[in-house]
Structures are given as C-alpha cells and as structure tokens.
What does this fold into?
Amino acid sequence: MNSISSLEGSNVEPPRENGELVFREPWEARAFGLAVALAETEALSWEFFRKNLIVEVAARERSLRDGGEAWSYYESWLKALESSVVDGAIVKKSSIADRCVSYAARPHGHDH
Amino acid sequence: MSHDHNHSARSPKIRIEALEDLLVEKGLVDRSRIDNLIQKFETDLGPMIGAQLVARAWTDPEFRSRLLDDADDVLAKENISGAEIEHVEVKANEPGVHNVVVCTLCSCYPWALLGLPPSWYKSPEYRSRVVREPRTVLAEMGLDLDEETKLQVWDSSSETRFLVLPERPSGTENLSVVELAALVTRDSMIGVAKAKTL
It folds into this structure.
C-alpha cells in the first residue's frame, strides 16, 4: 500500500526538524484554532481575515523598525481576529471589551 | 511575562478567552472543534505528509506528473486532511532550476502538507529579503547554488500555496518510498535546502 495513511503506525521518524513548538503559549493555539474554526463554518471569511492579518503584520513591522517592542506573531493574529469579528458585525467591540474587564477582575484562582 | 500582564484586560490570554466565550455563546463556534483543530496542527499535521508525496513522486513518474499537473486532485484522492481549504501547486526542482517559497504579506503556507510554518518563515527578514536577494538568503541558510542555477521565488497567497518537489538525492536507487521519505525535510519542501543525502 502506497497511500499517505500507510505512514501511520510505522516507525519512520517524521522529518519534522522543526526544533520549535508549534505554539509557544496556550492562548496562541486558541487564537489559531478559533480563526480556523470560524472559517470552517463560514462564520468568518478566510480572505477577510487574511486581509486584516496583512494589515496587522505590516503594522507590527513598522513598529519594529521604529524601535518599538517586539510582540508575538500571534498577537498580530489575535488583533486581526478581533477586528475581523468586529468589522464583520459578528460581535460588538464593546462586548469584547466588557468581557475582558470582567475576566481580568476575577479573583486569583478563578481566572481560567 | 509578568503577573500583571497576565491578568490585565489587554493581555492576549484574557482577550482570546473573552472572544472565544462570546462566539461560543452565540453558537458560532464549537469549543471541541477548536480543541480538535489545535490537536491536529500540534500533532497530526507536519512535513511527514508532504515528504510522503515527494518520495512517491521520486519513485512513480505517473504520480509525479499528476502531482505537478493537479496537486489538489491528488490531495483529494489521498484524503489529505485540510486540503479542501487550500489550492496547492507543486514546483519541481531540476538540474539548473531551483524553487523557493515565501509569503511576502503574511504567513500563507501549505498547512495540509507541512503543518504550520516555522518562525523564520514568518519573519520580516525572510519575507522581504528572499524576494530581493534569494541567492544570498539561501546561502546564509546553508544552501549554496551556483550562478548558473535559475532561481524561482513563489509568493504564496490565500488562493495558492506552494510546495517544492526537491531533487532526488543520488545513490538512493534502492531505497523504498518509506526510506526515501525520511530524506525529505521540511526545509527542502520550502526550497531553502536540498533533500538529505545518505
């Protein structure tokens, strides 16, 4: 058998050689998974999200060139996701802000 | 990361939690689907999938021509997960022609075949320089190409993702597809390296 699935269960070492984690922190994984899940159900257009991502990536690079603080690629991703959801009238900006404030105010030990 | 930052309303951790909860409450997204997607990208998807295709293309000329002519059709027939959201084109390296892939605007990448991109692929340096001075960038990454080799740089987009079909290393005539796949690195399928030799 020559199909891709024949690799499963074999003891061939996958040539990943990534040497790095796919996601550095759990929130990066959530941001990634949320965007893809929304695109899958077509609640969000991937093309629309990507346009916002391009804008955020460019803004990040301008900031870096101007000596600004470096931030994670997934922070640009998260910003793009927030603006896509708000611009697409899926969730109100104020709803997100209110929810963030209420979550940030939770007592320690109840914050996840 | 400081404690304060972690708990601030502007911290990414809080923002993504808020956004996810709001979308779940609206019924627009299923939390377990997000869990499954993360699991898939962290453990199931990776360069071993692309490597298997490359190794088959090295050993089966008919498969190779199908892969180069219509990669989407091959991916669909192989039931490669995630392929339905991507249009993939495969570019073959040949003596005198070397292909390399970039996404100049963000980080488009053939997820279904390679998983998620490495950090350097997303870096401003790689994205801008590989278009302007590909030969220099490749040399810095350890791939020296002679001046006669023609370099083709493919800029990915949301419409089209690219995979490089590296050249089969010499002396591998007796290897099986499975053994050959172990020589096909992620970097060789982005085009910043050659396949491993024996």
